[in-house]
Design goal:
Elements: H1 13-16, H2 20-23, H3 28-38, E1 43-47, E2 60-64, H4 68-71, E3 98-102, H5 111-120, E4 126-131, H6 146-155, H7 159-166, E5 171-174, E6 177-178, H8 199-203, H9 213-229, H10 231-236, E7 244-245, E8 249-254
Parallel strand pairs: 1-2, 1-3, 3-4
Antiparallel strand pairs: 4-8, 5-8, 6-7
Length: about 260
């Protein structure tokens, strides 16, 4: 099923994605890890490309993104994205030196089909930025919005499923999250909880769209109250002094076809 703006997954970016690019900027430290995983590839396919985060500037990148709202937010310096889904990539076998996907596989309608397609059209490495569903709910946000993180944990596929879909072994690389991370996913605010009081920041994390407005308001009210009283800092204030956070974020890398 595709939403009105073309969004092909379980999140409707025509409804929640209009300010996405303002909060979900590529973080250069995470971008460097992705670039290294892509190796010397000259041609790169970006699947579920969104507004173009993490597309390397020094390669020839072909982007695929089904949501018109997200395609419209791509900066002028990037090539327009092709309207297509991961499950049906309009390319011949072995068309690209490498492929990438960031914060997208949990939204695909058919994960196995999308991963098979990525592997089919790619000669070399496939790099996937995603989260480990077993670790998502360890984040402090569970104290305030447990349904948000439960939703995320349910949506993210296990790493074994990713490896099975690609049909090749994968290397699992833990990604340190910088304190001043420019990419505003939930864990990016580990030491800056005030950011999650901003409605647009929350909507830039699609899992917030799966709870009711009343549940979101209640979660935000609890967080705001604990920040004002000092209760949050009493429990988690040490995170404000941590330069990086070891959360649920990983880079999964398949080096090439067997």
């Amino acid at each position: 099923m595709r939403h009105e703006d073309g969004s092909a997954g379980d999140a409707d970016y025509g409804r929640i994605g209009h300010t996405y690019s303002a909060y979900r900027q590529p973080d250069p430290r995470i971008a460097a890890m992705i670039a290294e995983a892509l190796g010397p590839a000259g041609t790169v396919l970006n699947v579920g490309a969104g507004a173009g985060s993490y597309e390397p500037a020094d390669r020839h990148v072909t982007a695929v993104e089904p949501s018109a709202s997200m395609r419209a937010q791509r900066p002028p310096k990037l090539a327009p994205a092709i309207d297509a889904t991961a499950e049906r990539l309009p390319f011949a076998d072995d068309s690209f030196d490498a492929a990438m996907a960031s914060f997208t596989i949990h939204q695909w309608t058919d994960l196995a089909a999308g991963l098979r397609e990525m592997r089919r059209v790619t000669r070399g490495p496939v790099a996937i930025l995603t989260c480990d569903p077993r670790e998502v709910e360890a984040f402090w946000l569970s104290d305030y919005a447990p349904k948000v993180l439960a939703t995320e944990a349910r949506r993210y596929p296990s790493f074994d499923k990713v490896a099975a879909g690609l049909g090749t072994p994968i290397t699992r690389i833990a990604v340190p999250i910088p304190f001043d991370c420019r990419d505003g996913f939930n864990e990016a605010y580990y030491g800056r909880p005030e950011k999650l009081l901003e409605p647009a920041a929350r909507l830039s994390c699609s899992a917030w769209s799966f709870i009711t407005p009343e549940e979101a308001d209640a979660a935000v009210a609890r967080l705001a109250a604990d920040l004002e009283s000092g209760a949050w800092d009493a429990r988690y204030g040490a995170l404000r002094r941590e330069p990086t956070y070891r959360g649920s974020l990983y880079l999964l890398v398949s080096s090439g076809k067997a």
